[in-house]
């Protein structure tokens, strides 16, 4: 756990025992709770309450999921949460109680083979899941009762897709390849949610987390294979990408997060077991400020808020 300083630097608040093989971490949009995906054979989700003054965590619930749970996603309406179950090839859907942050199981939805994560479009109507082994993207409509409804055929993606992000304008989607060093660009139908291939853009060697700046100008990619942070400029009209900066990060970056001011960006580095801290200049150039020691095998980072 860390406190985020005004300078963007991180001050350690210590460590807290977690579940078995913790993977993805997601903070509730209001900063009140942390949801952690745990990936043993019998996967589960751990829910922590975040102390708003000191940032410390208190475990309030664990709830079963599928096999080898890798990520937790919260729907934009904040009423539902979803666990991606990598080896049972499905998603666990939960009702999210707003005051307490607790989850109640609702249903299970089939996915492709080895779904890695679930991402929503800005409206919250559609969800997208990169399937690592079938090299495609499942598209879902979010029903009013929280159920994920498959929305037509899966869209072919790049080899070993690990992440999918939607542009803030809702017109484009981007899928990063761990196997081919490529980002596939899609146009996104705002009426159906279906994806149409636009082009492939070469980028890095083995991509993990992707992140788009809130203003839609920059796409940041954690290149685990090259141990770099990549920055690509986004054409707001066509959705095309132009490589702009490649900056060394820690060894084998996986998770990526940006603070609420969009001034600082953080990568969780798997092999070096630390967090790289970058200040983002106005042209998108990331300047490395420091590396903060984390635990071994760091795979994700989630920011709650500034605690001032």
Using brief descriptors, characterize the structure shown.
five-stranded antiparallel β-sheet, mainly beta, 308 residues, 0% helix, four-stranded antiparallel β-sheet
Folded structure, characterized:
The protein has 308 residues and is mainly beta. Helix content is 0%, strand content 52%. Strands 11, 12, 13, 14 and 15 form a 5-stranded antiparallel beta sheet that branches. Strands 3-4-5-6 form a 4-stranded antiparallel beta sheet, with no helix packed on it. It has a 4-stranded antiparallel beta sheet with strand order 7-8-9-10, with no helix packed on it. The chain starts with a strand and ends in a 15-residue tail after the last strand. The mean pLDDT is 95.
Largest sheet: 5 strands, antiparallel
> What is the approximate shape?
globular
Number of strands: 27
Would you tell me the structural class of the helices and strands? mainly beta
Radius of gyration from CA coordinates: 18 Å
Q: Percent range for helical residues?
A: under 10%
- pLDDT averaged over residues: 95
Order of secondary-structure elements: EEEEEEEEEEEEEEEEEEEEEEEEEEE
Output the number of helix runs.
0
Gap from first CA to last CA: 16 Å
Residue share in β-strands: over 45%
Uncertain spans, ≥5 residues at pLDDT below 50? none
């Amino acid at each position: 756990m860390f406190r985020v300083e005004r300078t963007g630097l991180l001050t350690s608040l210590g460590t807290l025992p977690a579940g078995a093989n913790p993977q993805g971490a997601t903070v509730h949009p209001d900063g009140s709770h942390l949801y952690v995906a745990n990936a043993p054979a019998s996967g589960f989700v751990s829910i922590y309450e975040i102390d708003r003054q000191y940032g410390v965590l208190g475990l309030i619930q664990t709830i079963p999921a599928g096999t080898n749970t890798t990520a937790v996603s919260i729907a934009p309406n904040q009423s539902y949460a979803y666990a991606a179950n990598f080896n049972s090839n499905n998603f666990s859907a939960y009702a999210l109680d707003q005051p307490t942050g607790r989850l109640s199981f609702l249903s299970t939805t089939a996915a492709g083979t080895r779904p890695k994560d679930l991402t929503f479009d800005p409206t919250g109507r559609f969800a997208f899941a990169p399937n690592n082994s079938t090299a495609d993207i499942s598209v879902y409509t979010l029903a009013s009762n929280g159920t994920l409804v498959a929305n037509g055929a899966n869209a072919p993606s790049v080899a070993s897709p690990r992440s999918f992000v939607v542009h803030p304008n809702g017109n484009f989607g981007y899928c990063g390849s761990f196997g081919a060093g490529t980002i596939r660009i899609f146009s996104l139908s705002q009426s159906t949610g279906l994806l149409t291939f636009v082009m492939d853009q070469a980028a890095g060697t083995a991509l993990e987390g992707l992140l788009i700046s809130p203003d839609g100008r920059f796409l940041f990619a954690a290149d685990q294979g090259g141990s770099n942070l990549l920055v690509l400029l986004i054409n707001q009209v066509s959705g095309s990408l132009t490589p702009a900066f490649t900056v060394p990060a820690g060894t084998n970056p996986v998770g990526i997060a940006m603070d609420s001011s969009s001034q600082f960006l953080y990568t969780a580095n798997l092999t070096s077991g630390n967090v790289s801290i970058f200040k983002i200049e106005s042209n998108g150039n990331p300047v490395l400020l420091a590396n903060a020691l984390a635990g071994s095998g760091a795979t994700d980072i989630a920011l709650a808020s500034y605690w001032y």
